[in-house]
Amino acid sequence: MTQTQPVETIPTPRSTPVAAPTAGQPYEYRRAPLVEPDWTRFPGWRHVTREQWESAQWQRVNCVKNIKQLRTVLGDLVDETFYADLEADQKALATMSMLVPPQMINTMVPFAPMTTEALLADPVRRYMIPVASDRRTDWPSHPYASRDSLHEHDMWVAEGLTHRYPTKVLAELLSTCPQYCGHCTRMDLVGNSTPAVDKLKLTLKPVDRYDAHIAYLKAHPGVRDVVVSGGDVANVPWKNLESYLMRLLEIGTIRDIRLATKALMGLPQHWLQPDVVEGLERVARTAARRGVNLAIHTHVNHAQSLTPLVAKAAQTALDVGVRDVRNQGVLMRGVNATSADLLDLCFALQGEAGILPYYFYMCDLIPNAEHWRVPVWHAQQLQHDIMGYLPGYATPRIVCDVPFVGKRWVHMLTDYDRERGISYWTKNYRTSIESADLEALNKRYAYYDPIDTLPEAGQAWWRAHRDD
C-alpha cells in the first residue's frame, strides 16, 4: 500500500497589492456649500450694492415683469432670437404673466458665462421664463388638461377656502405672488390674465374673506390642519397675515398651520425684514404655547436656487420658533427630473439650507404643460433611485396629485395601462362635494401620462381619440 506523501506548500512571494476595480455608485455625494452668485455680472445690476440687493423693497421694485425690463438686466448677453422666442410665448402660450425677482434671475446660469444657449438650457429659466421653443407642438396640452385641474375652486366652502381632505383645508388668502412660476397649478386664479388665460377674480374684500374662513372653521371642528396659501402669503401685508394666524390659533380644534411661500426662496429678503421676523416670532410663540404645529412650506425646484440668503431666511424662521421649514418641489422635465438633480437638491436643502425635503409633486394636468410633465413610471423610477442616499426623514415622497383623489405616493396606483398612459387610483375619503356620493370610495379615478412619452401604439390611440 502506497502512503500518500504530504503536499509541500510553497509560499508565494509577496507582491505589491493591486487595488481591485470598483464599480462606483450611481450617485456620488460631494458637499457643495452655498454661494450667492455675483449679481453685478448682469449689465443692468452692475452698480447694485449689497445693501440694495438685500432689501426686500429693492427686490420687489426691480422685479422683471416684461421683455423690456429683462433686456435692461441682460443687456447684450443674449441675442435677439431669445427675446423673439419669449415674445412668441407671452403672446400665445403662457398661462402665467412674467414676474421674476432679481434674486431668482441671479440663480440662472450662476457660475458660467451668460449666453443665449446657456440661458435656454438653464433649469431655473426653463420654468420661470418659459419660451415658445420649450413647449411641445404635437401635444402642447393633454386632452384632459384643465385650468383648475385639481378642482380646488369646485371645492370652495367659502371664497378661497378649499375643503378637499377630511381634516385639512387650503386657505387662499389672495391671488398674487412675488413671483409667477410657469407651471403654476392655480393658474386659473393666480396672477394677471394672459392672452391664453382670462383669470378668475376674488370678489370679496380681504376682511370679509378671512371672516368667512374663520366662521367655517369654527363651525367644522373636524378640520385640524390649515394650509395658509394663495398666491403666496409673502404678499399679504404682515399685520393682516398675523391677525389671520392669531385668529386661527384661537380655534381650539386647529392643531397644524402651514404657511405656503415660494418667496422664502424667490424673495428671502422678505422673510428677513425685522417686522416680519418679529411678527413671526409672536405667532410661533403663541402656537407653541397652545400646542399647535407651525411650519413653513416653500417651493424649490433646483439646487441652483439655494443661496446663503435662502439658508439665512430658513434658519431665521427656525430660530424664532417655527417648528419646521419643508420643501415641496415639482417634478419637471428639463428642470429636475433626474435622480442626480433631485439628490443634489435634497442634499443642498437638508444639509446646507436647513430645509426638509418633503414632497415632489408630479406637474399637474394644466394647459401648455406637457413639455414639463413626466409619466408615472418615470416618477416611480426616480423614487426608487433616490432611496438609500438621504437620511430617511429627509427622503422626499414623490406624489401624484390625482383629480378628486388627492396626493398619492406614485407606487399606490391600482392599475396602469402603460401603452395608453392611463393610471387608475382609489381613495378612502370623500371631498366636500361628494358628501352624497355613496360610490365615491368604490370608484377608480384616472390620471394621464404625457402622450409624447407613450409607445407609438399609445400615441396613435390618442390621435384617434383626440376629440372624444
Record the SSE blueprint.
Layout: H1 50-53, H2 56-61, H3 67-74, H4 80-92, H5 102-105, H6 116-121, H7 123-128, E1 156-158, E2 161-165, E3 168-172, H8 206-219, E4 225-229, H9 238-249, E5 256-260, H10 263-266, H11 268-271, H12 274-289, E6 293-298, H13 308-319, E7 324-331, H14 339-353, E8 356-362, H15 376-386, E9 397-402, E10 406-409, E11 415-417, E12 422-425, E13 445-448, H16 456-464
Parallel strand pairs: 3-4, 4-5, 5-6, 6-7, 7-8, 8-9
Antiparallel strand pairs: 1-2, 2-3, 9-10, 11-12, 12-13
Helix pairs in contact: 9-12, 14-15
Strands, total number: 13
How many individual helices? 16
Stretches with pLDDT under 50, minimum 5 residues = 1-10
Here the CATH topology of the largest domain equals TIM Barrel
What's the pLDDT, averaged over the residues? 95
Return the string of H and E elements. Answer: HHHHHHHEEEHEHEHHHEHEHEHEEEEEH
Helix residue percentage: 25-40%
Q: The biggest beta sheet, please?
A: 10 strands, mixed
Global geometry: globular
Radius of gyration: 25 Å
Q: Give the termini distance in whole angstroms.
A: 93 Å
The multimeric state of the shown protein is single chain
Based on the coordinates given, report the CATH architecture of the largest domain.
Alpha-Beta Barrel
Overall SS class: alpha/beta
CATH class of the largest domain: Alpha Beta
Whole-number total of structural domains: 2
CATH superfamily of the largest domain: Aldolase class I
- In percent, how much strand structure appears in the residues? 5-15%
Strand order, sheet with most strands = 1-2-3-4-5-6-7-8-9-10
Biased composition (Polar residues): 1-15
Protein name: Lysine 2,3-aminomutase
InterPro entries: Aldolase_TIM, Lys_aminomutase/Glu_NH3_mut, rSAM_sf
Region (Disordered): 1-25
